[in-house]
Fold this protein.
Amino acid sequence: MSGGRYGLAQAARMEWIKLRSLRSTWWTLAGTAAGTVGIAVAVGLNSRDAAADVTNNALAGVVPGLLLAGVLGVLTMTGEYTSGTIRATLAVVPRRSLVLAAKAVVFGTMALVAGEAAAFAAFFAATGTLRSGVPAPTLEEPGVLRAVLLSGAASCLIGLLGLGLGAVIRHSAAAVGVLVAGVYVGVQAVGLLAHSVAAYMPILIVANSLSTTEPVTCGSGAASCPDFLPAWAGLGMLALYAGIALVCGGWLLARRDA
C-alpha cells in the first residue's frame, strides 16, 4: 500500500506493531502495575483506622504510577527521533498529523486498559488484605467506583500528555523534565500563591479524583478547599491539557524537519 493511501486504521496498526515490539513498553507497564498493587497491599495490611478513606489510600500507588505512564508516553514519541526511525515512519505515512493521531489512539488505548486493570487490582488487593475491624469498601458505595475508574483514566491522560510533550520537544530528557515539573513540582509553587490556581494542577486533580469524599483537603490541618474541581470536571481538565499538548505537537510535527 502506498504511503498516500494510508488511513488512520493502517497507521494505527503500524504503531501497534512498533509499540508492542519494544520490551521497555511491557517492562514499564508491568512495573507500574506491580508498584500500584504493591502499595495497595501495604495499605491494606497497615490500615487500622476504621474511619479512613480506604479507597483513596488503596489507590495511592496511582500517583507515582502517573510518572511512568507519562514517561512512556514521552518515549513513544521521542524514541523515534533518538533512533532515527521517524524518517521511515514519515516516509510511509506522509500525513504527519496522522502519525501522531495513530500514536495517540494506540498508546492511549494501551495506557487506559493497563491503568484500569492496575486500579481495579489495587482496590481489590487492598480491600482483601484489610485488618479485622476495618470495614472494606465495595464498588457499590458512593464515589468508590468513580475513584477507581478515574484513576485508570488519569494514567491514560497523563500518558497522552507525555506523548504530546514528546512531539513538541522531541528530546527525551527535556520532555520528561517538563512533564515532571508540570505534574508534580509546579503544584508546590502554585499552591503557595492561590489554591484556586492549584486546583487546576494535574496532581491535585488526580488526588481529588481518588477521594470518595470531594473535595480533598489542602493539606494536613487545613480547611477543605471549596474551589477544587469536581472529579469528572477534573478529568475533563486533564483531557484538555493532553489535547492541547497533542494539538501543539501535531502542528509542530507537520511544520518541522524530521
Observations:
- The chain is about 75% helix and 0% strand.
- Residues 74 and 166 are 5 Å apart (CA to CA).
- The two ends are 22 Å apart (CA to CA).
- Residues 8-255 form one domain.
